[in-house]
Amino acid sequence: MHDLVLTVFAVTSLLGLVSLLLPLAERLSVPYAVLLAAVGCALGGAVGLLIDGAGQGLLGDTLRAFAGFGMTADAFLYIFLPALLFETALNVDVRRLTDEVAPVLLLAVIGVLVSTAIVGLALWPIAGGVPLLGCLLLGSILATTDPVAVVAIFRDIGAPRRLNTLVEGESLFNDAAAIALFTLLAAMLTGERAASPLHAFEEFLRDFAGGLVFGYVAGRIACLLLPMLRDHRLAETTLTLAFAYLTFVLGERYVDVSGVVATVTAGLVVSSQGRRRLSPSSWDNLARSWEQIGFWATSLIFLLAAMAAPGLLAHAGLNDLLLLGAVIAAAIAARALTLFGLLPLLSAVRLAQKVETSQKLVILWGGMRGAVSLALALAATENHALPPEIRQFVGVLATGFVLFTLFAMAPTLRPLIRVLRLDRLAPAELAMRNRVMTLALSTINEEVDGIARDHAISDEVTMDATARYRRHANAASDLAEENAQIPAESRLHTALVILVEREREFYMEYFEERTMSRRAVATLLAQVTALRDAVKTGGIAAYRESAARNLAFTRGLRVSLWLHRMTRLERPLAQRLADRFEVLLATRLVLGELQRFAERQLQQLFGAGPFEILQVELSERQAAVDQAIAALMLQYPTYARALQMQFLKLTAIRLEEARYRQLCAESVISMEVFNDLQRELSLRRRQAEQRPRLDLGLRRDELVGRVALFAGLPEERRRRIARVLKPRLAMPGELIIRQGERGDSMFFISSGAVEVRIGPKPVRLGTGDFVGEIALLTRRPRTADVVALGYCQLLTLTRRDLRILMRKDDELRRQIASVARKRLRSSSASAATRPGDETEGAAAAVSAAE
């Protein structure tokens, strides 16, 4: 019990300490990780010096608590590492990371292998009998980078976002690669695995690739489960926490892949997909919760690992200092080789954008090593299967190198960034900053004047207080002149980027208000991502093409359509069509918002030229969306009305909830009354969120009754005919019949319209008509393409069933043959054919059939 009390006391004492160190680091302008390492080393040294003379009481218990904490390397890795990795991955912008995937993987995977090899080979001749595998083991430990100190500096001084993405992405995956390599080399040193370079490389690839696959599957499962929690925020955080640790442990112990790679991958999947599956407020809550968990994990692992540093360095000698100098030189040289030798190759083969030399220098000097390196060094020293000289060698040099990067490189990184002028905005960004600030502040002067009048503040005081804002109001009139000096293409591209980002924000706002479903928002966000990528690579032309592709039928819809035709299964097709309906309605709603946003904001910022181009693009998008909606509404008007009613009901419920919250905040109603109203409101919202089911309207009896050929038949005959007809839904623009193919079916149009593309003037057929009979009667190839003009409900009749019907029903045979003969004559006349040609032969075949 006493040991348990001391452990609790030690943990809570350290948490209390780190809470004080964070504001202290800001006050001293020192990276937080550096201050943590310094305090940890000081604590570790104090415990080692004072523990023997400590008596009873608070001081003695505190020293014994720290000394007997008993944190092994496995404890570091299994308690802190999953939370640390998952939190970092969760906060990474996956879209930007995807853009930089080639340089990130080069730095993280190839860079780890290069660093391990160069450090190991550089030390081997001078390591005093330490084998090559031992030197490579040290190299793998030193290949990990820690972004905590570096990213904090980037954030403070406003470094370029791309630099931040490269450093964070590299750290995520190089931790995974380095730990996988460290585990493999340690197993080879202890004899658990064969010491074969080829076998080792195969094992490394298997662990890494297996971790990617397992982590992706785990992340997808987590994303499927999250929406089922129905915005219970405590449960969402708990589920992701469980998945972080389960993924790590299952990957390491049971699936036999890299648990680090798996955890990182799972975190990235949740970061990418979770934003679409959780409401924005739920996602923000999840991110804040993980920020707190990550802060605890980072702080404790840094402190505890640094506390072990004095013990690891206790037996260091002069020779170790010389070896440390060699390690520093080799590690920096290896990183420089990757950055300046290998990274440009990616740009040469166009796999990545060029990384500027100044940014490479910052990445080179910003390669800090931290808690993960110290934890791996501790794992090596605790592994008694390793020879004592290797444990001593690894422990001393790894700890020394980590302290060098934290106490020598980290403090000098900020001045280096300033010297390289990376803390300054690019000219275009600076111009945008000034323009936005001018417009934003130009109206504040008038607002403050009104407040001053309301509070009877003198004009003299008001003039002095608003002097700065009056200058901005005067400067706002100069924006038109500035617009003329900036190239129109640059203004248009920037405005288009802003427009796409604003479209994404609109969708997220409607999702937060629960007036759009998760399925619809997931599709819409994917479409916005496609628009963003198109703008980045091809500007306005690519934006236009991407917008058109977003209106095309999805692969899922086409698969469900094929499934329906093969198996007559309607539910998947109805679900996909309902999804399309909802997405189109949401798109039209947001396009209207975007047009108002462009008029209100972008016109002032970028001038009339870019604004007019954007308005044209938005108007064309809206017209295309309106056309797609009209096609659906024409076929399914009842469902369209039900969707629109659902949207208005959900909007009314949102407004009602906001009104109740305001009344509660103003103390008009008590919290008890508010909670009672909320319970009723939640019930009505759940009922309103149940999307109406779309009826495809493909019941054969009803469809047969709409065909003019069958409408006048007795009910029994219609029922008999219906048994051999198969319902089919055709999509707008779908090619129902292809010219030149051998026909095996004809089609009755129960609803909709088709176009027969024959001759100079196409023929349109509508509800009640039929098409495709000539090829069946003449046994000749199709003579024209037939395309659906909208959603068409068709009845399909095969050649075999047509023959049977015509033998049993003389009247039906005569009517079909009569229509076919008239169409052949019309086709012959329009094509100006001569007697005796193919058309005449076809007419004879039809007459024979009659």
Terminal residue distance: 101 Å
For the sheet with most strands, the description reads: 4 strands, antiparallel
Give, in spatial order, the strands making up the sheet with the most strands.
Answer: 1-8-3-6
The beta-strand count equals 8
Annotation field: number of helices: 36
The rough form would be described as globular
Structural class: mainly alpha
Strand content: under 5%
Average of the residue pLDDT scores: 82
Extract low-pLDDT stretches. 832-837
Radius of gyration: 36 Å
The helicity comes to over 70%
Notable features of this structure?
single chain; 850 residues; mainly alpha; 4% strand; globular
What does the model show?
By secondary structure, this protein is mostly helical. The chain is built from 36 helices and eight strands. A four-stranded antiparallel β-sheet has the order 1-8-3-6. A four-stranded antiparallel β-sheet has the order 2-7-4-5, with no helix packed on it. Strand 4 (754-757) and strand 5 (763-765) form a beta hairpin. Helix 6 packs antiparallel against helix 7. The radius of gyration is 36 Å and the shape is globular. The protein starts with a helix and ends with a helix. Residues 832-837 have low confidence and may be disordered.
